[in-house]
Amino acid sequence: MLRLTLLFAITAVAEIVGCYLPWLVLKQGKSMLLLIPAAISLALFAWLLTLHPTAAGRTYAAYGGMYIVVALVWLRVVDGVRLTGWDLAGAVVCLAGMALIALQPRA
């Protein structure tokens, strides 16, 4: 379970970085050179998704819960926005959903 959780978290960071860097270019006028690590990060994200042990659709569904949690951590750490109780409650619900999907009994 720890390995799967870490894999989901690393995958989410790769996706967020791959999307955040172009956002910086487009919204804050940062250097176009940031698009190079953004593309690398998105390629890493796609590759990391292939390392998950279940069918693609189930992986994407479970991954969504972790993505939300990592995005909230990013909001706090990178953007400096204080999380609300609603954010934290939503994160718990998302992690519970991820666990239900990822840990279901295998046939």
How do the helices and strands line up, and which of them pair or pack?
Layout: H1 2-28, H2 35-49, H3 56-77, H4 85-102
Question: Can you put this structure into words, describing what you see?
Answer:
The protein has 107 residues and is mainly α. Helix content is 77%, strand content 0%. It has one domain (2-102). Helix 1 (2-28) runs antiparallel to helix 2, helix 1 (2-28) crosses helix 3 and helix 3 (56-77) runs antiparallel to helix 4. It is flat, with a radius of gyration of 15 Å. The two termini are 18 Å apart. The relative contact order is 0.14. InterPro entries: EmrE-like, UPF0060.
Q: Give the overall pLDDT as a whole number.
A: 91
User: Sheet with the most strands?
Assistant: none
Any idea what the shape is? flat
> Can you tell me the number of structural domains?
1
Strand tally? 0
Keywords: Cell membrane, Membrane, Transmembrane, Transmembrane helix
Main location: membrane
Membrane topology: Multi-pass membrane protein
Transmembrane segments: 29-48, 60-77, 83-103
Annotation keywords:
107 residues, mainly alpha, 4 helices, membrane, transmembrane, cell membrane, EmrE-like, YnfA family protein
Briefly summarize what is shown.
It is found in: Cell membrane. The protein is mainly α.
